[in-house]
Design goal:
- With 307 residues, the protein is α/β, with parallel strands linked by helices.
- The chain is built from twelve helices and eight strands.
- The protein has two domains: 237 residues, P-loop containing nucleotide triphosphate hydrolases (Rossmann fold); 52 residues.
- It has a six-stranded parallel β-sheet with strand order 5-2-6-1-7-8, with helices on both faces. Strands 3-4 form a two-stranded antiparallel sheet.
- Strand 3 and strand 4 form a beta hairpin.
- Helix 2 packs across helix 3 and helix 5 runs parallel beside helix 6.
- The longest helix has 28 residues.
Amino acid sequence: MIAPPKKKLIVLTGPTATGKTRLAACVAAKCNGEIISADSRQVYRGMDIGSGKDLGDYRVGDTNIPYHLVNIANPGYEYNVFEFQQVFKLAFSDIEKRKKQAILSGGTGLYIEAVLNAYRFKKADYNQSLREELQLLSNDELEEKLSSLRTMHNSTDTTDRLRLIRAIEIEMAENDAISSFPKFSPIVFAIHYEREVLRNRITERLQHRLQNGMIEEISTLLGKNLQPEQLAFYGLEYRIVTQYVTGEISYKQMFETLNIAIHQFAKRQMTWFRRMERNGTTIHWIDGNMPMDEKVDMVLAKTKQSP
């Protein structure tokens, strides 16, 4: 029996300030698509300007493009990649069930790779029924079962019966997590600009955000009993602007420090994407200077050509 073709997943990524969300929305408008955000900070409600949420980017003409994994957690909560992976599965399955095109868009490299590689983040809970079943087996039978679940790298787990049973418990839980992950055929795109152009875009965007409510947004969060050390968890803008709001640094120090830090962050993002390529991920690079229509056509054409 011939297996049905895998569903395609369009992935749009790239460094900060390259216009990923807008491109994703324009692509979605042309292919009946919905966007799944791969941004570790846009999950938080009330953290809009500092996280670069730009919800207006999801409107194309008269159409509001549906999006997922935005505004799903409260400030103060420390969302993590394991939770992202689980909610991605639900969103992807829902989109596919409604016969729409899923588009994963964002710049958090770890989130992107957690989806592309189905990283094993499953936490194995205590499984009493499994343990009772395993207790009936001899040590040799337990070792054979563990070997069937993974390649044995050392004998640490096999020197103690309880550790052997726990190792089997963990492997079975992780294998269940992998088998339940959606099956799809990804095609990955990333937007790039020449370094100096990107630096200018970052600086201009930072100026715009500071002049249009980012400082007030962070002041509001601090007024809701969030502590400065909590805001530091949410990245550069929240950590450094908080230092200004609380009087630790001047506006000039804040702007210069934050501007440099975001430039450095963009370089680290590029390093991450290049590492992904070295590890086997094919990335189709899109020149950020191309007109939007040409970018959209490139994404749709290459997606259609992909197996």
